[in-house]
Amino acid sequence: MNELLKQGYLYVMDADIQRYFDTIPHEKLMSRVKEKIIDGKILDLIEQFLKANIFDGLKHWEPEEGTPQGGIISPLLANIYLDPFDHKMTEAGFEIVRYADDFLIMCKSKESAKRALRKTRRWMKANGLKLHPEKTRIVDMTEKCEYFEFLGYHFERTRNTHRIKRWPRKQSLKKCKDAIRKKTRRSNKDSIEDIIAYLRPNLLGWYQYFKHSTVYAMRGIDEFTRRRLRSIIAKYNRKKGSHRMIDTRKYNKAYFTDLGFFSLEEAWKLEFQSLRSKH
């Protein structure tokens, strides 16, 4: 997607399908599944999955549309149902980026983006779906400070340059910090080395997904995590108050690195330098 932006696809149809997983028509869905699967037992199993009773207190009913929220094959069925839409838009000359029900259509002009929106609405209506009226919009990325969000990332045209930068959206940052908070409570009785080891999978996984962000996002998570660790050290040392009451010169980056701390910023710099050397 970033390559498309660089190539001038700066008009983005940012779409949201209203209640997608709840409104997929079963009959049309099974018709598309049968185009890909011929095993009768598998088809029967999928139908049973779709028609499994829904219980709400003492009430229960058999659904006539939608796939179970959180169901193990719901994302796969969602992809199968929207597969013809992908081909339709590609054949019309549009660049589409989609993951399950989240998708963007990238265009080089506002007129093209408007045409994509009209075609999308027609296809959705014909297939029993509806675009969310408030969450679907055309984004003009030639305008300063304009932005869109997709799969956890925030894409924005900066105020003082013509570059489009990306960083984790606020909800993604909050989710990461919440996970760190759970493992760095001041009541934690584990050693700092153990806590750092517990944190490593979270930090490494988060980095692998968001490493395409700016370095400032990486640095922010590092600084937040080190503050949490210093706060625990202050508790260990029977000192009250925030981490500022301990010697930050002693408990610096190098101190935590020696204990095995995974620094997102350092990992980002190493990877960035490696990519630059290859080019």
Describe the protein.
The chain is an alpha+beta fold. It has 2 domains: 1-165, Alpha-Beta Plaits, CATH 3.30.70; 169-277, no CATH class. Helix content is 50%, strand content 15%. The protein contains 11 helices and 9 strands. It has a 4-stranded antiparallel β-sheet with strand order 4-5-1-6, covered by helices on one side. The longest helix has 22 residues, at 215-236. It is globular. The chain starts with a helix and ends with a helix. The mean pLDDT is 89. Residues 1-155 form the Reverse transcriptase domain. GO terms for molecular function: RNA-directed DNA polymerase activity. This is Reverse transcriptase/maturase. It comes from Lentisphaera araneosa HTCC2155.
Write the layout of secondary structure elements.
Blueprint: H1 2-6, E1 11-16, H2 20-23, H3 26-34, H4 40-50, E2 54-56, E3 59-61, H5 74-91, E4 95-99, E5 102-107, H6 110-126, E6 137-140, E7 147-150, E8 153-157, E9 164-168, H7 170-183, H8 192-210, H9 215-236, H10 253-258, H11 264-278
Antiparallel strand pairs: 1-5, 1-6, 2-3, 4-5, 7-8, 8-9
Pfam families: GIIM (PF08388), RVT_1 (PF00078)
Family: Belongs to the bacterial reverse transcriptase family.
Keywords: Nucleotidyltransferase, RNA-directed DNA polymerase, Transferase
Order of helical and strand elements = HEHHHEEHEEHEEEEHHHHH
- Using only C-alpha atoms, the radius of gyration works out to 24 Å
For the record, the count of structural domains works out to 2
At CATH's second level, what is the architecture of the largest domain? 2-Layer Sandwich
Task: Compute the number of strand runs.
Answer: 9
Helix/strand/pairing category:
alpha+beta
Strand fraction: 5-15%
H/I helix tally: 11
What multimeric state do the chains show?
Answer: single chain
**Termini separation:** 20 Å
